[in-house]
Amino acid sequence: xxxxSLIPFPKEYRAGTGTLVLTGIGSVSVPESLxxxxxxxxxxxxxxxxxxxxxxxxxxxxxxKKEEYxxxxxxxxxSAEAGSAAGFHHxxxxxxxxxxxxxxxxxxxxxxxxxxxGWRGFMLDCCRHFMPVGYIKKLLDAMSLxxxxxxxxxLTDDQGWRIEIKSHPELTExxxxxxxxxxxxxxxxxxxxxxxxxxxxxxxxxxxxxDVVPEIECPGHVSALLTAIPELGCTGGxxxxxxxxxxxxxxxxxxxxxxxxxxxxxxxxxSQLFPSEFIHIGGDECPHERWDSCPKCRALxxxxxxxxxxxxxxxxxxxxxxxxxxYGKRPTGWDEIANTYPERTLDSGLVIMLWRGPEVAxxxxxxxxxxxxxxxxxxxxxDYRQTEDEYEPGNLGITTLKDSYxxxxxxxxxxxxxxxxxxxxxxxxxxxxxPKSATxxxxxxxxxxxxxxxxxxxRDWSDFSDRVKALPLLLAAEELEAGFxxx
Length: 487
Hints:
With 487 residues, this protein is α/β, with parallel strands linked by helices. The chain has helices spanning 35-44, 85-102, 133-145, 170-175, 195-207, 223-228, 257-273, 289-292, 295-304, 309-326, 336-339, 358-366, 401-405, 435-442, 445-455, 461-467, 471-477; strands at 12-21, 27-29, 55-60, 69-74, 77-82, 105-113, 119-125, 150-154, 156-157, 160-161, 211-215, 278-280, 330-334, 351-354, 371-373, 420-427. The chain starts with 11 loop residues before the first strand and ends in a 10-residue tail after the last helix.
């Protein structure tokens, strides 16, 4: 039997003899901590427990890493040993992939596998264009099948504030609504995620061992926030939720203490909604021109001994980082946070999300901060066009499938203690209006990114480019239309 086109392909796959056909499960023998994973597998396979038939057995090993697993498939059933419930879930997702790819005749085999990186992520921008909860769940199902571990949820930006904050209802009452738009009329409706919907998404992801990391943009990309609370800006407004794309001069007033009071309220509620270890604080593309002429910002500079507007962003980042740590979370943010004023240091617990080049990476690693790779010029920006065809949909540049598969993983740390903890693909939605358009842009490149951070340097483009041809079968199982072109 042909070796199945698994993505990511496991580190060790040994073919056996015969096949396993699952029309029901006769017995499940697992410790209590693995029960949920087994039950989810049975539901996803659309089968039921029966009085007789194949078995599922599972066990935990303290000698294995958290996401490591070993799997055995015979004609009689499935047995797996793992380092945690996450590893056991990965083992069963491997079986599910094989079932989909083989039309239900699962090849008997032995598999040993574990990821190279813990952070294997996907970022979805729901600010520029809102994506419904039902679609997000379908993406989470596909992420689970591809063994991705982090859903980075971009929830606030110039074009919309998408998360309900009960202490500041004006954020969604005013900040989620655009007065005008070049899109169809329904795109101007108020759209945001209620706290109940957020808990639902977080629970759904957690069941699939996916960590949901929220992003609250600051101090730039805050037009929606300023529209809701104008006094937080340097000029006091008026402001509007942006219908344009780009970088805008109105940012948070660093010298206004109310800014920190409001953000403290926001991050307190965010920390309660998301059990993740991480909260993303944005920090990218923040113009400083308003601070130059703002009396409150100038007074703060004098009081704190700051010599430039660049140092103001360092001051702001330091206070927000302390806020995040106060709520028991680990802050992460875009690489400008570390490089706006490199002479000043930030908390070593801050994780930097690298979207710019290798020099920035080396600088961050040398300072002792960990890095998540998401470089716009190295395969991570999957809102870019997939080919050079001028009629190909997409934004700005070109990211081919091979680009996403060929991402650089090694950087000069200059003797620093920082390390690369993983990477992700980013989908910015300035030019992506609807879920079907998003699916076209996400795949197949997210499958390549999933394999990169699962297998590390041990990958083969020729082999992957053959296996990825089966990806439409996997996506169809998650009710996602595969409208993209696979080379």
